[in-house]
Automatic annotation (TrEMBL):
The lineage of its organism: Bacteria, Bacillati, Bacillota, Bacilli, Bacillales. Gene3D superfamilies: CBS-domain. The keyword Nucleus does not apply. It comes from the Bacteria. This is CBS domain-containing protein. Coiled coil: none annotated. The keyword Transferase does not apply.
Amino acid sequence: MLVERIMTSPCITINEERTIDEAIKLMREEDIRHLPVVDELLRVKGIITDRDVNLALPSILGETEVKLDAPVADIMNRDVMTCHPLDFVEDIAIDFHELSIGSIPVVKKGRCIGIVTQKDMLNTFLELTGVMTPGSAVEVAVPDVPGIMHEVTKVFYVHHTSIESILVYRDKENPGQKLVLIRMQSMNPRPIIDALNEAGFTVRTPLDMRL
């Protein structure tokens, strides 16, 4: 999935010459936690978060309210990670994880055209897993060999059961084996479970995992 499919665009930005007070009001009015700071050409110069505002307010109010008229450049984070609308979502997910950041502005031809937040990433995860669609799921242990997914999905084809999503990940306890989490458009997984077992696969369901 590409970033352009999940980003908020156009995104709300603020000019680097606007005041801290204006930034605070804008974030409250728009109910946002991340505010890219741009110049007149929409080039990203920094970013302000609700945390930046909360950290700045006590010292500002402790001295004089005049400092609320200071430019947002005084409190913005200048070291900003950006991405391109044609980047893959899974690639920027690594940046979110490794850098512990809450948002990434989306830049195309040097201009800020959107933003991706942690909430967008969570919504994307829910969409990719198909968990928001009525159905059921099974986990299948398979050998890590070419063509194995064909054998697994053939069982669903034979039983006329549509697959909503497939996630494949390593089995940490058994090298050379993969675990396949399959979400299907059926509230009754029993026929599929029985068929997979008959085909020689080891199947686990959420109920089994609790035991």
